[in-house]
Structures are given as structure tokens and as C-alpha cells.
From TrEMBL:
Source organism per UniProt: Desulfosarcina alkanivorans
EC number from the UniProt entry: 2.7.7.7
NCBIfam families: holB
Catalytic function, reaction form: DNA(n) + a 2'-deoxyribonucleoside 5'-triphosphate = DNA(n+1) + diphosphate
Gene3D superfamilies: P-loop containing nucleotide triphosphate hydrolases
GO biological process, one term: DNA-templated DNA replication
Pfam families: DNA_pol3_delta2, DNApol3-delta_C
Keywords: DNA replication, DNA-directed DNA polymerase, Nucleotidyltransferase, Transferase
Name of the protein this chain belongs to: DNA polymerase III subunit delta'
């Protein structure tokens, strides 16, 4: 996964790239591909690189002359089709994405009308349908038509988090390729290429981002880091300090969390990571995610019993589920912190 174009510039997805190169080398392209994996692991970037390789004039001529090993199956980046696709203005590379959070039937109908016409200039017309899980039921059913009867020399690439987010009839008509979370070294490499980050911060973020470069960029925001430090400070004082926990302080914590509703879920993820790290710090400190906080987490691990931590993690999980069901945020958070405090007694 990277901001550059071409297979060789994509980081951390060797198996998907190897498979796509094999399709191109052998001329055995499936009419529909489904790329699944977390956000920020390179699905859309790879789809663009695949579209470029399928239409690269230099690569096409080289393959026609003689078979090539996978290592050099890649777009040149210099020919007309490559430049147009990289610049996002090739007429036969069609991109469909949620507007703003849903892919509606009108978008799929427009796509079907475009696919009824012959390609303008491409060797392979490629449709990149991002976040396919955002299709409503009508849109999904409409897409089945083109998956059942694909136009000649047309490839569809769908991206989604997981196959279960899509209609089974759509999944069954696609060749599924799974994209793995990026490793911490890959994340650090990408952050270094982006520039403007201290090595210590890159180390922390690469451990916390769950293998997603998109999430890593978000975590680099100083506001997120300040929020994490505030939450950790409360947890350290209330749970790892001398008993008993102060209910008034817990309710003040709940009130502050509830003020920014768009950040509640993110904040609760930070709380859960704190509990998880305290559990891990006791037995395997090298697997702590918040590595820059290892000393404080190790102190907490000495004073907090694992059984208590598990009860507190359950309290946060229940709160997250309730919030996703549109319960009252302040009441839900109050109940959560009281349960966390109650587990201390």
C-alpha cells in the first residue's frame, strides 16, 4: 500500500500482487474481483495499479512477444494509458464510491448504461467499485445483472471490509482476494515516506493502528494523541492508584466523553486498549501496543487483578454495542463508568 502507482510500489501485499500478476501474465483475468480487508491496507491503490497493468501498452507488447516472470509484470507508468489512469482521467476506468455514505441504485443504473457502450480506447475497461458494502439492497441487486452477464473485455473490482458485508450472490460471482493488515515495519516505512514524523512517534503509531495506514495517519493528529494521554491519565489515577475509586471523578470523565459525540467510539477504543495493555504488560511487555507508556502500564499491571480487567473490558464492550443501537450517550457512558468503578470494589 502506498501513494505511488504500480505493483512494485505497493507495500505489504505480496500474495494479492502475485496472484494479480499471474492473471495478467496468463491472460486469465476473472471478470469480477473482490478485494477485502481493513481500510488503509491498499485495496484501492492495488485496484488502480491493476487497471494500469491491464492497459499498459509497453507491458502488453512485452507479454505478446514472450512470457515474463511475475517480477516484471507491472505498468510502465509512462505510456498514455498509464498516465491517464494515474491521473484519474481515463475514460474507460470507471470509479463508483458512496455518496456520501451509501451507493444508491441510481449510481449502479448509470454504471450499467456506461457498460452497455463499447470502451473508448482501453484494452480492458475496469470498474473500481469502492466500499461495496455501502450498496443498498436495490443497488446490490442491480449490480448482479452485470456480474451475471459481464460485457466483453470488462473487469469489475469491488472493495469491501469483509465478504459477509455483501450479498452472498455478489460474493459468489467474484474471485475473492484477501488483503492482510500491514506489518508495523511497513507502516513505519510509509510514515517515513510521508515525512514530518519523529521515529518515536512512528513506533507508537505503527503499534496502535492495527495494520491500517489510513488509521496511522489519523493517529498522527496531535488532537488524538492529546486525547489518548488524557484518557490514560484518568485510567492511571483511578484504576492504578490507591483505592477507593472516586465516583465523582468517574462521572466527570463520562460527562467529558459525552460532549464530543463523534469521538465517543474512538475514545472507548482507547479505553479498551489501556485495559488490554495492562493485561499484556504483566506477561509479555513486548506485545504492549502503547509502547511509549510501558512503564505506567507495567505499574498498573502490578496493582490491578486480571479478573477485574476482564469485567471492565466487558463493560466497555456493552457500552459500545448500546451506543451503536442509538441509546442515550450520556446515560450509557454513566452506566459504563459505574460498572468499571464497581469492578474495583
Amino acid at each position: 500500500m502506498t501513494t505511488a502507482t504500480g505493483f512494485n510500489a505497493i507495500v505489504g501485499q505480496q500474495q494479492p500482487i502475485k496472484l494479480l500478476k499471474t492473471f495478467i501474465r496468463n491472460g486469465t483475468m476473472p471478470h469480477a474481483l473482490l478485494f477485502t480487508g481493513d481500510d488503509g491496507v491498499g485495496k484501492k491503490t492495488t485496484a488502480t495499479a491493476f487497471a494500469m497493468a491491464c492497459n499498459c501498452r509497453k507491458l502488453g507488447s512485452a507479454i505478446d512477444r514472450q512470457p515474463h516472470p511475475d517480477a516484471i509484470i507491472d505498468a510502465c507508468g509512462d505510456c498514455g494509458p498509464c498516465r491517464k489512469i494515474a491521473g484519474n482521467h481515463h475514460p474507460d476506468i470507471i470509479r463508483v464510491a458512496p455518496l456520501p455514505s451509501v451507493i444508491r441504485i441510481a449510481q449502479i443504473r448509470s454504471l450499467l448504461q456506461s457498460l452497455a457502450l463499447k470502451p473508448n480506447e482501453a484494452a480492458w475497461r475496469v470498474v473500481i467499485l469502492s466500499e461495496a458494502q455501502a450498496m443498498n439492497a436495490e443497488a446490490g441487486n442491480a449490480l448482479l445483472k452485470v456480474l451475471e452477464e459481464p460485457p466483453d473485455r470488462t473487469l469489475l473490482v469491488l472493495t469491501a471490509r469483509q465478504p459477509s458485508d455483501l450479498l452472498p450472490t455478489i460474493v459468489s460471482r467474484c474471485r475473492h482476494i484477501r488483503f492482510s493488515p500491514l506489518g508495523a515495519p511497513d507502516i513505519k516505512r510509509l510514515l517515513a515516506l510521508a515525512g514530518g514524523i519523529e521515529p518515536e512517534s512512528a513506533e507508537t503509531v505503527s503499534a496502535l493502528c492495527g495494520g491500517s495506514f489510513t488509521r496511522a495517519q489519523k493517529l498522527m493528529d496531535s488532537r488524538w494523541l492529546r486525547r489518548r494521554d488524557w484518557i490514560h491519565r484518568v485510567m492511571d489515577e483511578q484504576l492504578a492508584g490507591p483505592p477507593p475509586p472516586q465516583i465523582r471523578t468517574w462521572l466527570a470523565f463520562s460527562e467529558k466523553l459525552a460532549r464530543k459525540k463523534d469521538l465517543i467510539e474512538e475514545s472507548l477504543e482507547i479505553v479498551t486498549m489501556w485495559f488490554r495493555d495492562v493485561l499484556v504488560a504483566r506477561h509479555d511487555p513486548q506485545r504492549v501496543l502503547n509502547r511509549d507508556r510501558l512503564e505506567a502500564l507495567s505499574r498498573a499491571a502490578e496493582s490491578v487483578k486480571p479478573a477485574r480487567l476482564l469485567l471492565q473490558i466487558d463493560a466497555v464492550d456493552r457500552a459500545l454495542k448500546a451506543l451503536r443501537s442509538n441509546t442515550n450517550a450520556r446515560l450509557t457512558l454513566d452506566a459504563m463508568v459505574l460498572q468499571i468503578a464497581g469492578a474495583c470494589t
